[in-house]
């Protein structure tokens, strides 16, 4: 963390958020990472949850909250959304399908960037749309690289299995056919913070009639290329 500001409650809150930037954490893990007393961490985390700056995942661990994405989008400073347009446009032009970027927020995933196929039948997903983490190729990607505890919770009542997620990790992309919405297919790949953790999923989506029932066979490598490009841009922009 940067040098303290002198305003203790703010400095301690930033320490908590900095730890959560690395991934979900239990109360004990927050205490160990920050060196802040357990009652203080608990009190600050509760206040941050109240303001939606922090949230909880299915395993009741602390995670970054949706309000942070709303603020970043309003300020126009979210690194992914700031860098995404040329990659999404390339992906749309190459595949002929609508393209999106999703980020995970607890039990939901949020579309933070989107470009639509200009003509014909398309899957229209406005920025800000929220979907379950239980279905869809983007949900598979966002869950596949999480730790064992998150995986176990995320698979409960999901449309995909642990074997599906193992395949996603092995080949580097995910596909779905009719999981999120009947008649819609999609392909997704992980976006990383440079060489670091998976922080988003980049996707294409459209009607099954055009994408086929095995969309990854035709578009998996292209979506992976887009994900790699955006990951490298994030690394160099950091």
TrEMBL record:
Transmembrane segments: none annotated. InterPro entries: GAF-like_dom_sf, HTH_MetabolicPath_Reg, Tscrpt_reg_IclR_C, Tscrpt_reg_IclR_N, WH-like_DNA-bd_sf, WH_DNA-bd_sf. Keywords: DNA-binding, Transcription, Transcription regulation. PROSITE patterns: HTH_ICLR (PS51077), ICLR_ED (PS51078). It comes from the Bacteria. Residues 7-66 form the HTH iclR-type domain. Pfam families: HTH_IclR, IclR_C. Residues 67-236 form the IclR-ED domain. This is IclR family transcriptional regulator NdgR. It comes from Yaniella flava. The gene is ndgR.
């Amino acid at each position: 963390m940067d040098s303290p500001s002198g305003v203790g409650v703010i400095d301690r809150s930033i320490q908590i958020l900095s730890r959560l930037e690395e991934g979900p954490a239990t109360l004990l893990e927050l205490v160990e990472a920050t060196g802040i007393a357990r009652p203080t961490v608990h009190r600050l985390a509760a206040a941050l949850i109240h303001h939606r700056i922090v949230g909880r995942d299915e395993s009741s661990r602390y995670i970054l909250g949706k309000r942070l994405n709303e603020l970043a989008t309003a300020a126009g400073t979210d690194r992914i959304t700031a860098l995404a347009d040329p990659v999404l446009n390339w992906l749309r032009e190459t595949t002929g399908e609508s393209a999106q970027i999703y980020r995970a927020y607890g039990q939901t995933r949020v579309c933070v960037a989107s470009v639509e196929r200009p003509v014909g039948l398309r899957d229209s997903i406005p920025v800000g749309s929220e979907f379950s983490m239980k279905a869809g190729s983007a949900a598979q990607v966002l869950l596949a690289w999480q730790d064992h505890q998150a995986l176990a919770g995320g698979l409960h009542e999901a449309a995909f299995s642990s074997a599906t997620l193992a395949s996603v990790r092995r080949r580097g992309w995910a596909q779905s056919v009719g999981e999120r919405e009947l008649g819609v297919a999609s392909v997704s790949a992980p976006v990383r913070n440079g060489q670091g953790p998976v922080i988003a999923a980049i996707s294409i989506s459209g009607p099954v009639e055009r994408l086929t029932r095995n969309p990854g066979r035709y578009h998996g490598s292209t979506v992976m290329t887009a994900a790699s490009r955006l990951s490298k841009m994030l690394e160099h922009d950091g």
